[in-house]
From TrEMBL:
Annotated coiled-coil segments of the chain: none
Record-linked InterPro entries: TPR-like_helical_dom_sf (IPR011990), TPR_rpt (IPR019734)
Keyword vocabulary terms for this entry: TPR repeat
Domain of life: Bacteria
Protein name: Tetratricopeptide repeat protein
Repeat positions for TPR: 285-318
Length: 721
């Protein structure tokens, strides 16, 4: 009996290739482990796709991007898929489902963010599988993984292999969509939409096909082909889409109709009808947003801002449109109207609302920081100009000017106060009406009119009538903060709040009163009336002018404004410590035919002959991509180590011009810093370090040069021996 059992066991071994053994393991692997693993993976994929939130205002991805955080909520299914697929690899080695199990392993691990392990599993299928269908499925998913990792070269290699394989219709669709996704991610929109055009006839009527038509329309929009885009937008509602996708397709189509017929009034091309449609009650913000985009395209920027304002006012609690509307308003103020203060305010509002997982979040954050800094520079310049003008007035004229400012401020406060009181009275009447209606059961505090009224009364009794502003608790304020408005308020409860709002009058300061004089004295403190205070004011203004001009050139790409600002800097502060870099920027920003361009270069050469900026402005051919820059560097470095410093420095200056576009040019520049330190003394060494830090602010050697600068500065403090 034992011998018979041993023979049966041997014949069913997972390493046996006997027909009976293979059949047993095929059956067991398929209907046990593989079936359960596939079901769990399918369930996870459906869940991931269903929970992915799309914003049709943005270019939709052709395939759902991998998100391991989002996939964690389906980790139970994915872990189970991995567990069951691993059983096949451990116990059914001779099964024909072995390569399929590795495909499931690879997919599940990639969804969980274990990309390297997942890629290895998919590569195993390519190496070991004898079934072309299984290999093609694994390779298609491997290609998609390379796309997500932005390894576009590897993805293209896989694509080229798959292109030569005979594929079924389903496999062809998957391959085409993955290839279209590859070109979309690499911003090759023409190739991407051309592949979509080939794919769409292979897909049956379905929400998936509606979505792909919408994406094709978006891609044609990016390519500036509105007629072709509208062809696809018109097909969206014919393929069983969700209503939101139909709505956005209609919005984009109307936007393109405006481009195709620019003389047609915006509201007459279909928007008025959509605003009246009751199905769009919660979507009016998006309609107004699209109308604003059309007005912006037509160059009607004020009308665009008006439509965007209507979009914000029409937004409901359930919408995510508001931050994108604020972004568009901010872009108009920056890019079209060059009004950066309101742009900053709208960017602030947008960044407080936009999801952090938005692909553009970091870019927008950087732009917001830039705008914050830009507005800060403008504010400093304006404030110091004003304060310096005030400091030049006689005491009598200065007092008159401050009295006028206090009067204007008080008038603005009074107007704001009256608007606030009117709003409070209206709210009190509304609360009283709500209190009159019967209500049974507990209420949330902010929905209980009697408790809200009581809270307002208690607040007024303790704090008086305060304007809604920063630091409202303070009794006395300075700078731009207003004085306390009203010390007490009459006691009131319930329905008496409306009377309290009207009975409490705005407390105006009397000119010449103690409070008035105290506020004027507070304002006088900020005026630079001593020589040291005036010097500090000029220094702040000088630095702000330079930083503003530099920002115009580097960040905002506005050479005309950069030239204007830096010319003002040189006019008012001709000996500024920033003049070396200011000369350089002026040389770059001025047009080639402007005679001032050469004069600024001459000043740079005359005042700073050894400056890095002089060499950067020197003419010379840029190095070819395959130029022997490394060989040149090694030769110059050998001059440095062998002590032939003058020869090396001369060759290095030539190399800095010849290879200025080389990726490692900062290594050449750092070597020059060392050579200058060896040959020209500590002062030139320090200047060379500072030059390096200004010219190559993103270099990986910046921390090292900071240490070098610190050593030089400490050495300068030591007594001479």
């Amino acid at each position: 009996m034992a011998i018979l059992f041993g023979l049966l066991f041997h014949s069913c071994s997972q390493y046996s290739q006997k027909p009976a053994s293979v059949a047993f393991h095929n059956f067991s692997a398929n209907y046990n482990a593989y079936f359960i693993a596939k079901a769990n993976l399918d369930s996870a994929e459906l869940g991931i796709a269903a929970t992915y939130k799309e914003n049709p205002n943005l270019l939709l991805p052709i395939l759902t991007p991998f998100d391991s955080i989002q996939a964690k909520q389906f980790s139970k299914n994915l872990d189970q898929a991995i567990k069951n697929a691993s059983i096949i690899a451990e116990k059914h080695q001779n099964s024909k489902w072995l390569d399929n199990s590795y495909t499931i392993l690879g997919k599940a691990r990639i969804y969980l963010g274990q990309l390297d392990d997942g890629i290895e599993a998919l590569r195993y299928v390519l190496a070991k599988s004898t079934e072309d269908v299984d290999k093609n499925e694994a390779l298609t998913f491997l290609m998609r993984t390379y796309v997500e990792r932005k390894e576009f070269g590897n993805a293209l290699n896989v694509s080229e292999y798959l292109r030569q394989q005979p594929l079924s219709t389903g496999a062809t669709v998957d391959f085409y969509l993955t290839k279209a996704y590859l070109h979309q991610k690499s911003e090759e929109y023409l190739t991407s939409v051309a592949i979509l055009e080939e794919t769409l006839p292979l897909i049956g009527k379905s929400p998936r096909k509606a979505r792909l038509h919408y994406i094709a329309g978006q891609l044609y929009d990016r390519l500036g082909k509105p007629a072709l885009a509208n062809t696809h937008y018109a097909r969206v509602p014919k393929n069983k889409p969700h209503y939101d996708l139909t709505f956005f397709a209609k919005m984009n189509s109307l936007q393109n109709q405006s481009l195709l017929n620019p003389t047609a009034p915006i509201e007459e091309i279909g928007f008025r009808k959509m605003l009246r449609d009751r199905k769009n009650t919660d979507l009016k913000d998006k309609i107004y947003f699209t109308m604003g985009k059309i007005a912006e395209q037509k160059g009607e920027f004020r009308e665009a801002l008006d439509y965007f304002g209507k979009s914000v006012r029409a937004s409901t609690a359930a919408t995510d449109q508001v931050p994108y509307t604020y972004l568009e308003m901010a872009r108009i103020y920056t890019d079209k109207l060059a009004q950066f203060e309101p742009a900053k305010a709208y960017f602030d509002s947008a960044m407080s609302l936009i999801p952090q997982n938005n692909p553009a979040f970091q870019q927008l954050t950087d732009r917001k920081k830039m705008l914050d800094q830009f507005v800060a520079y403008l504010t400093i310049i304006h404030a110091e100009d004003t304060l310096q003008q005030l400091a030049r007035l006689s005491p009598e004229a200065l007092n008159d000017r401050l009295d006028e400012a206090i009067t204007q401020r008080q008038a603005a406060q009074k107007l704001a106060y009256e608007k606030e009181q009117a709003a409070m009275a209206a709210m009190a009447r509304q609360d009283a009406n709500a209190s009159a209606s019967p209500f049974s059961g507990p209420r949330w505090e902010l929905y209980d009119p009697s408790r809200v009224s009581q809270g307002k009364t208690d607040f007024s009794r303790k704090w008086g009538n305060r304007t809604l502003e920063d630091n409202w608790r303070r009794k006395t304020k300075s700078g731009n903060q207003v004085a306390r408005a009203g010390e007490t308020a009459a006691d009131s409860t319930g329905s008496d709040l409306a009377a309290t709002a009207t009975e409490t009058a705005f407390k105006e300061m009397v000119k010449g009163s103690e409070e008035w004089v105290a506020q004027r004295e507070s304002m006088l403190l900020s005026i630079p009336r001593s020589d040291s205070a005036m010097a500090a004011s000029h220094k702040r203004k000088e630095n702000a002018l330079f930083d503003l001009g530099k920002m115009y050139w580097n960040n905002l790409k506005e050479p005309a404004n950069a030239v204007k600002t830096l010319n003002r800097l040189m006019d008012e502060y001709p000996k500024t410590e920033h003049r070396q870099e200011a000369y350089y920027i002026l040389c770059l920003a001025l047009p080639a035919d402007d005679p001032a361009k050469q004069s600024w270069k001459d000043k740079l050469v005359a005042e700073f002959p050894n400056s890095t900026y002089v060499r950067l402005l020197s003419s010379g051919p840029a190095a070819a991509p395959d130029s022997p820059a490394e060989t040149v560097y090694e030769r110059i470095y050998s001059h440095y180590t062998s002590g032939r410093l003058d020869e090396g420095l001369k060759e290095l200056d030539d190399a800095l011009i010849q290879y200025r576009d080389h990726a490692g040019i900062d290594r050449f520049a750092l070597l020059r810093v060392f050579m200058v330190g060896k040959t020209k003394g500590s002062a030139a060494y320090k200047e060379a370090i500072l030059d390096f830090m200004k010219v190559y602010p993103e270099s990986e050697y910046i921390p090292r040069t900071k240490e070098m600068l610190s050593v030089v500065e400490q050495a300068a403090l030591l007594p001479n021996n």
